[in-house]
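Box 4.2: Ligand-aware structure prediction
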Amino acid sequence: MNNMINSPVIVALDNMTLQASLALADQLDPALCRLKVGKELFTRCGPDIVKALHQRNFEVFLDLKFHDIPNTTAQAVLVAAELGVWMVNVHASAGLEAMSLAKQRLIDNNLDTLLIAVTVLTSMDSDALMQTGITDSLDVQVSRLAQLTKQAGLDGVVCSAQEAKTLKALCGQDFKLVTPGIRLADDNADDQKRICTPSQALLDGSDYLVIGRSITQAKNPAEKLNRILQSI
Ligand SMILES: O=c1ccn([C@@H]2O[C@H](COP(=O)(O)O)[C@@H](O)[C@H]2O)c(=O)[nH]1
């Protein structure tokens, strides 16, 4: 495994077959980015995709966003971590007990996989949040779930880079902020609502930038990744 990587970029492998995702991985340098396997690719390929990316020396964020009762969440996190991935995640709204148990299960099994929790999806704005019955503002809800995640002993959260400044102040420098919804100024926002540029995200305190379509749908993904790395 590549333990020397200091790039903040995590490329999201979405909208792809096994062959296409491996062809993309083969164009990218594991010293310049990590890769994210989400629900779509994992449902399509299973653990074999993780193995294939590990063989290519990539660190993998397995983004399955578990959200279930505490025992089921903890067991799913354990089995995911046993694949040797760098990072796994749950939804913070699964609650304190589910998150604490999941973290404890990793510790009991001597697994150092990072465990983070999703606060409010970056595809949601305040109207979408309100439709789910949450009447507090988006910022209040994100901060509340981040604090709950920290209380449960997790390593950090998924949030928008728009919340990074606030969450670093609230949860401390060591609490990892993993931020999707990253777009260059000339990119399409697609279904993302709370977006930010790579450089602004890092300035505001993001630790890791999750970037999917901006790179994967570029004519030359490796060149786009380099352009992004140069911009930061
Ligand atoms: O709040 C969240 C949590 C996860 N994601 C995931 O990140 C990528 C973003 O892809 P783009 O193509 O750059 O929009 C995608 O895999 C999501 O499942 C997120 O966007 N927001």
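In the box above, the bound molecule is LLZGTKA7. DSSP finds eleven helices and eight strands in the chain.
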